[in-house]
Amino acid sequence: LGAGIYSVIGVAAGRAGDALWIAFCASGAVAFFTALTYAELATSYPKASAEFTYLSKAFPRAPSFAVVIGVLVAFSGIATTATVALAFGGYLAGFVDVPPFVAAVSLIAVATAIVIIGTRQASSVTIVFTLVEMAGLIAVVVIGAETPRFGEALSTPVHWGLASATALVFFSFLGFENIANLAEEAKNPGRDVPIAIFASLAVATVLYALVALAVVALTPSEQLAASDAPLVTAVATQSSWGARALGGIALFATANTGLASILVASRVLFGMARERALPTVLARVLA
Questions:
Q1: Which residue would you say has higher pLDDT here, 83 or 112?
Q2: Which of 160, 201, 159, 156 is nearest to 178 (CA)?
Q3: Cα–Cα dist 33/28, whole Å
């Protein structure tokens, strides 16, 4: 569960309308095939730099190809961290008078310190933050389920707007593939990594679809599309305190995504440096 659900659901609702839940189910189905691939590869090659390792094995005569992809994966994590850190700063400004840039830099500094302390500690923080975020999404579903319109969207016909909406909400599922980069930390990667990948994908798909049913029951899709904080806008129609609480939970969601992105990027760079594809200084660890 990442911060994507808090941002893209509004725009997707504008395109899919009441059929938004179908877009999430379709994206989950597409992600399932990617999950099959990552589960197989992570079981075969449980290494820190997942994509780099896979491509090195697949194209041994073109090592530069694996290096380029590995670096891009690391930079993807860096870009994600920067994006969600700024979003964190924006949400925090609603509670504390702190410039968003200062809040973003502070979040990155704290998250980096946690990762330096250890992978186990970073994972523990991620678990707590994920549970908080899950509680927020479940609250949205509960509030939406209390309205008479909840469930009406199940009979909405399929239309072409779902195609672009499905592509948009796929962003909400990105992150499960990062589990592969932590396979080396697992005690039994052959068993645990596939379970983690498929379980996280299943939970996310079901929860996202229920959230989609809830928000379109609470608020017209056009209003959701025009909102910068669509989940907060939807909940505010029924509960002002719930909307404020959801804004606070968004802090955990963005911080969680930033922490996970830093953790994964560090593992990618470590694995590549250990194979001497990057400067070996990046492969040093604290004794």
A1: 112
A2: 201
A3: 9
